[in-house]
Structures are given as C-alpha cells and as structure tokens.
Structure to design on (189 residues):
C-alpha cells in the first residue's frame, strides 16, 4: 500500500491474464522447465517432442519422394558411393545403399517408402498431439500403433536386409516403454 492509495494495476492486467499465465505455464512445463518432473517424465517429454519432429520430417520426406523421380534418387546414391562418402565403395554400407537405391528405382520400394513415411508421419503427429495434451485414451492407442510399426519395421528389415529399420524399431520400442510408464503415472495421479 502506498499511503492507503491503491495503485492502478496498469493496462497489462486484464481479465484474460490468468488464462494466458496458465497457457504459458503449460508450455513451460511441457518444455521441461519444472524441477518437479521425474527424469522419466522429462525423458517422455523429450521423446514425444522428437517423435513429433520425426513425424514432421517423415511427412515432408514422403511428399518429396512422391514427386522426385527415381533416377534422381539412384543418381544421388551413385554419387555418394563413387565419391567414397561412405568409406570403401565396395564396403557393406555402400553395398546396402546401392541395393536400396536399385530397389527404390524398381518402383515397389518407392511406393512403400512414400506410403510408410506418409502414414507413419501422420500417425506420429496425431499421437504426439494427443500425448502432449495428456489425453489418457491416446496412450493405449499410441502403444498399439507403435507396436504395429515395430512389428512391420522388423518384418521389412528381414525382407529387405535394411540396416536402418531395426534401429527405428528399437527407438519405437523405447518410446512404447516411455508411453507406458507415463500412462501408468497419469492413471495413479
């Protein structure tokens, strides 16, 4: 109090300010700004943020692959291999890239890649949106969908001898574990 005179709160104080503060607080909490979060919850938040970024990149990648001719992709792979950017041109990594480019040029792999990236990207973005809002019903759905992706990634890895797909399957399995732990914690709360 200033000598019994009440000060004007100013133009920045409006009726909407508490709502703005709550929204900012939620963003702050989502970004991991609170020290109260457990390390598992922080890891979960980081994982879903990365999944969201991954989903966006996959969506953009699907759109690019849909419109880029197969010859451009095989030409890029050939340039990478012949310039020794992956080490020895007859090495394992170079051979895998060459085989992948040949399969891509044949057509079936391009259709799979575009469809897979498009579906995976859209589903990831939808799940990340629901999980970020702590929509409880989304957690079991996310676990089932990610488990289906893991199974399909493993199947495709066995079929195509892909190096990358088992890595993505492992990442998705870790995300499933984190989603499960967060779901369990939310149900207890």
């Amino acid at each position: 109090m200033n000598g019994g005179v009440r000060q004007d709160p100013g133009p920045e104080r409006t009726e909407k300010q508490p709502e703005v503060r709550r929204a900012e607080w939620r963003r702050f909490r989502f970004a991991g700004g609170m020290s109260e979060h457990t390390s598992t919850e922080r890891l979960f938040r980081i994982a879903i943020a990365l999944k969201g970024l991954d989903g966006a990149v996959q969506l953009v990648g699907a759109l690019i692959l849909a419109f880029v001719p197969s010859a451009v992709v095989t030409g890029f792979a050939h340039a990478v291999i012949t310039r020794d950017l992956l080490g020895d041109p007859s090495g394992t990594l170079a051979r895998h890239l060459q085989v992948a480019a040949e399969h891509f040029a044949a057509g079936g792999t391009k259709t799979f890649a575009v469809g897979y990236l498009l579906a995976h990207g859209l589903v990831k973005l939808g799940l990340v949106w629901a999980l970020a809002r702590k929509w409880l019903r989304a957690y079991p759905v996310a676990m089932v969908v990610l488990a289906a992706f893991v199974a399909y990634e493993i199947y495709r890895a066995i079929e195509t001898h892909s190096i990358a797909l088992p890595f993505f399957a492992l990442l998705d399995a870790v995300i499933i574990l984190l989603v499960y732990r967060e779901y369990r914690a939310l149900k207890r709360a």
